[in-house]
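A sample copied in:

***
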Amino acid sequence: MCCWFAPSTLRITFETQGMGAFTQAELDRYVVRDAAGTPVALDLPTQFVLIANHQVRLHAPSMCHAHPPQVYLDWWYAWCLTYFMSPHGVHRYVYITLKKSLRWVPVVGWGMQFFKFIFLARSWASDRRQLAVDLASLGREAEREGKPLCFILYPEGTLVSKDTRPRSKKYADKIGISDMKHILLPRSTGLHYSLRALAPRIPDLRLLDLTVAYPGIPPMGYGQDYYTLRSVFFDGVAPPAIHMHLRMFDVKTGVPIGDLAGAGAGGVSESDRRPRRVVEVDIPGAEKDVFDLWLRKLWQEKDDGMERFCATGALAPKAEAPVVEIPLALRRRREVLDAFAFFWPAGVAYLWGRIRG
């Protein structure tokens, strides 16, 4: 889609000073250079949880008049990043959370089930068990078979807009802290629970933090007012570059997720290998408070980066290097057929069922 209708470039920088900073040795290992020494690609760890800020929402045509769906451009470009971040096909093992009602959308919903997306009711009381079951299954698969795993979460829960900005300010006032200027305050419960669920099964689990910014959006502006579904994919007016600033943490040593002694994935006993027998474990209040503070500090540095971007056009300080610029293009033209690997058979099966019915 990007190749044909919305060509752009990923402009990737790396944290070298603050939280989640890359060491020079890590940069030498993860940044792939050509013969001339120019950064051209990435080779990052392949089992990680990806978190990011929301910036842009695209309004999509309604499939249901009462509840028009929304497509987030941030998800789109995050998925594009996974295609370029490793030669090991990480983009084929991306898992996201979606509204439970989307599970049964014809063809598309079946595809999302096939790819093991996680469907939630958006009520923590009912979602926590489902999340534990699904993450336990993904963790076991990554543990036993060594497959890549990318679980994407947006701790803000939604994007910055005229409706969500007051809610973020109200939440900040409630807990007695300052609100962010350019992004929303993060909610930590889902992320904390997910990291505690996956870390026991994946010894080298990483947390990859992504700060995303799009040129042309003024300070305090709302991205969806500048980039729409029509402008990006129908009029060809895509962001000239998608700026992405990366931080990376070793979950077990660099993230305060708390004491995991005696717990398996999602609070599952290590002697219990079946996901349907998940035993949930509440997170102690003191451990939750520590994680909350850590995540808010991370988000404050992210907000500072957005302030810098508004002033200078760069998320990273000028002295930081390297910068990897990757055009949004397929490595091989024949890969375009991959887009139809599931949907053609599913579409044929759906139409055959309608004809027989």
In short: Residues 56-71, 264-279 have pLDDT under 50 and may be disordered. The chain has one domain: 1-264+276-326. The chain is about 35% helix and 15% strand. The domain at 1-264+276-326 is CATH 3.40.1130 (Glycerol-3-phosphate (1)-acyltransferase).
